[in-house]
Every structure is written in C-alpha cells, then in structure tokens.
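Sample intake — Glycosyltransferase 2-like domain-containing protein
Collected from: Paralimibaculum aggregatum
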Amino acid sequence: MAEERDAGAPGAGAREAVDPDPVAGPVAAPGGALPAYDAVMATRNRPEAVALSLPLLRGQTVPPKRVVIVDASDDPAPVAALVAGANAGPGPEVMLLRAAASSSAQRNRGLEALEAAGGAAEVVLFPDDDSLLYPDAMAEILAVYARDPGIAAVCAAEARVPPPGVDLGAAYVAPPPGRLRRTAQRLRQRVTEAAAGANPFLAIGRRLGGQHPPPGWLGERGTVAVPYMTGFRMSFRRAALARGGAVPDGFDETLTRYAWFEDIEASFAAMAHGPVLGAERALIYHHRFPGRRGDGFPVGLWSVLNRAYVAMRHVRANPALFPRPGREAWRLRLYLAGRAAAYRLMARDDWSRARARGAAAGLRHVGPLLAPETPEEGLSARYRGLMGRLAPEAGPPRLPEG
C-alpha cells in the first residue's frame, strides 16, 4: 500500500479527492456489457472497518460475483462472525481465508482462492478494509473496462465525504491532531510540495504509461490516465496481473508486512499490458483507521528501501524506456535523501524519531539496490537481505494462530 501519500500523487487522475456529482447520470457502457468482477479484501485486526465496508461492497448497483476476505487478525472470531452474518442473507458469496500478515501475500492468496473456485472474474477489485464504496463506484469502473479490452487497470477517485446514508457516528474516529502535529503536517506539506517534481514514482509511471497511445475517448465521464494507483481504490483486469519476468504473477511478495508501495509496483507491472486509467466518477471514501502501522524504525526503512526497490525494478525491467539507469538511480538517491531529511525535521515523538532513524539507516544501506551492476532478478534477494539484516522483525510474514 502507498501508506504515505507521495508528493504529487494522483487522486483519481492528477487531482485531489472529489465531492460526489449528483447529476452524473446513469452508467453507460458504449463498448458493450459490463464485465464481471470479484473482490479481494485483505484485513488484520480491524473488524470494525470490515463491518462498515463489506455491506457497501456487496450492495453495489453492479455487485461482485464473489468477495474474498483474507484475514490475518490475531483473533479470527470477529471477522468470521461478520462473514457468517453476510452469507446468511442475500447478496454475493463471501469467502473467508486465513493468511500471513502481508498485503501482497494476502491479496495473492485471495486470487489463488478465486482460481481454485472456478477461476477469477475478468476484473478483480482490491479494496482496503476501510474503503467505503459509493453505490455505483464499480459500475463506473466497469464502464471504463467495457470501452476497450486493452485497458489493464482502473482506479476510483477519493471522495471527501462518506457514501450517502453511511453513519460514522459509532465508528472508529481518529483523534484531532494537536498543535505540534498540525505544525509538523504543515511542514511536511511544504516539503512534499517542493519535492513533487522529483517524485520518482510519478516520473517512472508517466514514462511507462507513455508506451500506450491514449484512447480516443479519454476524458469522457471523467476518465483520465494515471501514473499509478493507490491501494484502497485499485482494480485490475485479471490478465494484467500476469507477469513474465523475475516476479511471480500477482503482487510482489518481496515487499512484506504492510508492503508499502506494492500497489504502485503492481500498477507499473500492469502497464506492460495496457493503459492504467482513473475513473473520476467512481467514488470511494477512505475511512482511515486511526493510529500508526508498525514500529517507527521499519516504517522509516520501508520509506527508503521499498521506494528504491520498486523504482529500480521497473527501471531495470524496461531498458528501452530507461537507457541510463545510473542517472535514474542518482535522481532517486537525491529524492530519498530529501525524504530522510524531512523525517528528521518532523521528528517530535518517539515513533517519529524512530522513523527518522530508520530512514537514515535505509539511506546508508540503499546502495546495493541502486548499483548499476544489480540486474532486475537480483533486486529481490538484495532487498530481502537488507531488510533481514536491518529489521528482521519486519518479515517474513507468519501465519497467525487459529
């Protein structure tokens, strides 16, 4: 997941979250009938989030064929009860799996379960457990796929407000930020805005996306090209999750635990198959769970090493588009140094100070991932070696008990 928003990160396209359009009109599919889709949702220790998101997913105006929830919770009972309750009523089947705690691995186990149950649908949605879909979000996404069988992936736009009729009054609520946190947020915003032009993911995604001529209908109903997708609102054509290189099909399990930027990595991989687009009329509200994910030190490491791994993997995999990988690595190192410096400036508590130390450690050890002599197939081993030495507690994932 792209847990922290990169500077210049796309909304649906290149803009921020949008308010719902009350006059959008019915969804049309000029290219033909809407394709079928399945949904795979990874979760861990957040049954209250699943309780909000699952009914909205199953209640879409175009419902999924099946929903797979892949649970890595310490206590499996709450999510199991939610799934049993859902299957007791009308609506699409909900399958429940237990898996090790890793966004990439959980999503892949869900895909495997769909294939074992008769094959995944043409399109697969991968919502987060806190993704609250507007009623016609998937109808809008599927209408984009229906326009052209060559479309590889489509993401929704982030709504500013919850879907109609959703009452968050009793749901988990993030506490309002204090004065120091507000100051740090403003500082971070200035730093990230200044760095927007240097964001390696934007530059790489635009170059990869440039392989495909834009569809002639681009712009209709708010359809835009995007340089990558963020995890809580991404969908893929099943065929676009197939790979022919150093990484197996699906999501890259080199990135363990919260797997920062595995969504961006999968977006880049899908661009080998066709355009990746945003549907700005497809709205999803991200009801972010309060609190931080993981200890500060590995989070700082991920912010550096995961970025380097994802960026250089696709630079090395596409020599025709990136004929000077050393230059790309130099630009990336400058960007990573800026991120590490921003973390130092924003360190105001024990967690953020640990994150700054992790980013500094990552910057000191990132060289093997950037080295010109490192081939694409050697990046996974080098990344795993670095993480195993610097933060062994961050991986590999273990299957939970129960």
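Post-analysis note: The two ends are 26 Å apart (CA to CA).
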